[in-house]
Amino acid sequence: MVTIERARLMLAILFTLLGLVVAHLFAPPVRAQGIIIDPWPIEPPIGVEPPPSPVAIELHRVDAVVDGPVANVHVTQLFRNPTRNVVEGVYIFPLPEEAAVSDFQMTVDGQVLEGKLLDKDEARRIYESIVRSRRDPALLEYVGRNLFQTSVFPIPAGASRKLELRYTQVVGQQDALYEFTYPLRTQQYSQTPVKQLAISVELRNQPGLRTLYSPHFDVSIERQGDTGALVGYEATNVQPEHDFSLFFGVDKQAIGLNLLSYKPAGEDGFFLLLASPGIEVAQEAIVARDLVLVVDVSGSMQGQKMEQARKAARFVVDNLHEGDRFNLIAFSTGVRLWQNELQAANAQSRREARAWIDKLEAGGSTDINRALLEGLAQLEPQDESARPAYLLFLTDGLPTMGEVETPRIIANAQRNRPDRTVRLFTFGVGYDVNTDLLDLLSRDFGGRSSYVHPQQAIDEKLSQFYAGISTPVLVDIALQWGGATVDEVYPFPLPDLFAGDQLVVAGRYRRGGPGAVTLRGTANDEKMTFQYAGQQLATSGGEPFVARLWATRKIGALLEQIRRSGPVQELVDAVVELSLTYGIVTPYTSYLVVEPEFAAPQDIGASATPFSLRERAEEEVHASASAAAEAPASGEAAVAASEARSDLANAVNLQEHQGVRYVAGKTFVRQSVVT
């Protein structure tokens, strides 16, 4: 685990550029006037900005392969000088403590120039002699502990320079959790965003690979069996506020579990629990379930949407497991069932189901209430088994037939809830859907709602979602904490656990120290218990991002309550307090973009927020919550609001607001100096 002190050493890629005075167009050639500036200190003086950089970073690509405990990292950066002057680049790169540079090279006009590791004084002498002759050197010189610098001169007007760097490092491990870190934070040293940022981390030879987690980056994860994975991240025009971190854990148990925690002085602590099974699950370990897919075939589904819905339904049928039971329902003005009751998933039933799907045609009105009740009725238990039940409900419109009032439809669903746990997942297609109805239904039944935007493909969105829940391995999950006192846990109740997925739980605890965690659940009518001894909750310090992630999830839960009950003062106060304390911008709290009169007289403001700012925040939350309560439940804005609330309530990483940082238990807002 990287400590705060070590993290400060592993700063983001730093670079400062110093413009050189160019000779007058008609003057005789002379040596450009310039110096090699010293790198900025790790902690810049308060109130002092580094000189602005005129050079644009066209590309910053990181390709890392973590093979066992060793990481091989290949960095490529493309710099462009958009000015009309020749400029000099001073590029500073902080390496991890165990890293060793294996290769450095620069590409100039298609020619690769190899770099050298030299004695510092010798490198400086050679560099300055080449500068005097106006040639293009690429030297990597050691300028401090774990810090390397390359100086590139000249970069002609309008020209580009590509730099490539390779190094290796041993990935550190603590409490069975590895952390690969790449220095990326540049915002405080450069005002120039990275035009294209791409990070790829390939994990190889990691037996029992379970947990995969990046706290500040929304990474894509492609698991490659139980020993490897490919993790990726891409963005454009960004100034990263944080270094890139990837936590990964290995475990011989069927389900791996890891803890990250943080305890500020004088406060209760925060924890983040990550539990993940492997991707390669034996057939007998897959939990058999009952599944009903309900598809809207009303008139508004005609054309491409209907064809995509048929394709999505076929995907669901094709990916059922032996032992599953299923049924299909189509609805419009009326309701049509494929079969009267659940059918065992086998080759014959799949073939017959696909033939039925291919004949579906769109037409008629939208009776959501009746279709929902028919779907729930199919999931009444047919025997004494405790198998999980899933209802997938897809619609592209508002209820126009039968019962159309949202509270009554929800009440009907609650009265007809089957006598077992049912997870309801709703899919709204387009913007003409009732987000209140779909969100509340899915939340009350322990599922979640998803929305397919007009430019998105229904089959791709539903197939991607279904692939994630296609292989359950543990249901009806509960956690026990031994002697630790844990509360304010999100999410609640805990969702089911699927192969290749992971459970992310955030909460608070009273006292830190060593202990054990017990994970309980059910798999194929069998009670399962997993013991994890030797777990550690921090007694002080730890990973501060855990506190912000917990606060983000709690804000999401509070906003859901506000949506149901309106802007109750107690709920509004809680949202404001959490948002101000942890620096979280929400759909209701844009006030964190502080106006100039609130700016602190230094680069990073004090953690205390002026009372007037809090007052304005409370007014804004009240107004926004009231407006949201009165706003239509359908339309593009309604879908966007629903997705924003869901992102907060189910947050697994932090997409931070520019200029807002949470450090050592305090929130800081970056402001310009007011004169």
What does this structure look like?
The structure is a single chain. The chain is of the alpha+beta class. It is 23% helix and 35% strand. The chain has twelve helices and 34 strands. The strands form seven sheets. An eight-stranded mixed β-sheet has the order 6-5-9-3-2-12-15-14, with no helix packed on it. The chain is globular and about 85 Å long. Residues 1-50, 591-611 and 668-675 have low confidence and may be disordered.
Uncertain spans? 1-50, 591-611, 668-675
**Number of beta-strand segments:** 34
Strand order across the biggest sheet? 6-5-9-3-2-12-15-14
Broad shape = globular
Could you tell me how far the N terminus lies from the C terminus, measured between alpha carbons in angstroms? Answer: 42 Å
Q: Counting H and I runs of at least 4 residues, what is the number of helices? A: 12
What is the mean pLDDT? 76
Which class of secondary structure composition applies to the elements?
A: alpha+beta
Question: How big a fraction of the residues is strand?
Answer: 25-35%
Q: The biggest beta sheet, please? A: 8 strands, mixed
Q: Mind telling me the C-alpha Rg?
A: 28 Å
Q: Notable features of this structure?
A:
single chain; 675 residues; alpha+beta; 8-stranded mixed sheet; 34 strands; disordered N terminus
